Structure formats: structure tokens, C-alpha cells
Amino acid sequence: xxxxxxxxxxxxxxFGIRVGIHPSWLLVFALVVWTLTSSFADLGxxxxxxxxxxxxxxxxxxxxxxxxxxxxxxxxxxxxxLSIRLFLFGGVATIATEPPSPGAEAAIAFAGxxxxxxxxxxxGLSLEIVRHTGGExxxxxxxxxxxxxNAVLAAFNLLPAFPMDGGRILRAAVWxxxxxxxxxxxxxxxxxxxxxxxxxxxxxxxxxxTHHWESLWYVALGGFVSIxxxxxxxxxxxxxxxxxxxxxxxxx
Length: 252
Ligand SMILES: [Zn+2]
Fold this sequence. Notes:
- The chain is an alpha+beta fold and about 250 residues long.
- It has a domain of about 80 residues.
- About 70% of the residues lie in helices and about 10% in strands.
- The protein has seven helices and five strands; from the N terminus they run ββααββαααααβ.
- The radius of gyration is 19 Å and the shape is globular.
- Bound molecules: zinc ion.
- The site of zinc ion (ZN) has 7 residues, from helix 2.
């Protein structure tokens, strides 16, 4: 993961953790703004663009909060986080050592989706309050989009595809049941590669049959997940040579 994110620009430090942006993030930010501007088109071009930028910043801010949830829970288990970065496929927290136990791994992995689900709930609740008090309709649109985006973020990350959060929870469960970190990593990695392949085939099939070429995004995402799975597996295997667990990881 570190090799893929070379060239990141560091924009600050929060809770002692470096926060950065990889140049590839600018592409996905522009794509999200463009998509949202189209969906807000009936507001007029200037309003739609402004609202799209605010919503996109809110969404990527939510992604950073998701990563900080991982980082702060990791800290409680004595695992330091080196950096949090935004890039083409979202956010990633790079931690210094692998979690010391299955319980720690599950808690660290679950913190991100839980945080995103809570953000979705807060946005949904705020949306209801705005609607019932006759508040600013543009604000309601932003809240609606953020509630949906955070709910999707929570659900997608819970898919059992290592090294995504759900895959790490799967690895923790197998690690706890079998007491074998290496075997758990192998099984979770197989699930991760299966998911990456399914995502790629789904994207290619959709693009082929519907001619909606934006579906090729899923092919790219599948490619990224497969690379991340291989790198995470190799790193975990290397660390397993020295100790039961140790090293660094990227937590999408
Ligand atoms: Zn996560």
C-alpha cells in the first residue's frame, strides 16, 4: 500500500497522526463533484456546483473520520498509526504494527464501519429535524446525501474481503477459532481475492451489457482490492516469520 501511495502531500497532523492527500484523490473528488452537480442540476449551475463541493467535502471528511476511528481504537490497544491518507479509492490508515490479538484486530476493524453508521444516523436525524422545522432545503439535500454515503461506506467496508474492514473481522474470527494467525490470513486473503474478482467481473459485465461505461470503475476497484490483498498477505506472512504478529497495514 505504501508504494501505491508514494507522492502524497501532507496537509496536517491530528491526534499526532499525519494526514495526507495522494494526487489520485483529486480525480475522485472531481468525479464526485461532477456527479453531484448533475444530480442537483435543477438548482441552477452555480448553486448546484457549490452544493456539490460542500457535499463532497463532507463526504471525504466522513472518510477521514472513519479512518481516525480505526486509529484511535488502535491506539487503545497500543498500536500506533503512522498516517491517514485520502486517495483514489477512499481513505487508508497505515498502522505501525499488526494488532496483538484477535480481539484487538476485530475492535480496530469494526470501529470504522461503526463510526460511519453513527455518522449516517446523525445525518439522518438532522435531516428529519431540518424537514420538520422547515429549515434550509439545500442543507437538507446535503444531509440526505451524507446520510446515504456514510451508510454505503459502513456497509461496503463490512464486506468480508481482506484487507477491508470486514475481511479483517473475518481474519480475527478465524484467528480466534483456530489460534493460527497465518492460516486466518490465508483464508481471509482468499476471500479478498474472490471478492476482487467478483467485483471486476460484475463491473465488466455491467459495462458490456448496459454500455454504462462508468461501471468500469468496479473493475478498477476490483483491481485495487486484489493488489491490496496480495500486499497485505505478503506483509502479514513476512511479519509472521519474526513473531505471531507485527508490521504495518493499511486499513481501508
Ligand atoms: Zn475502515
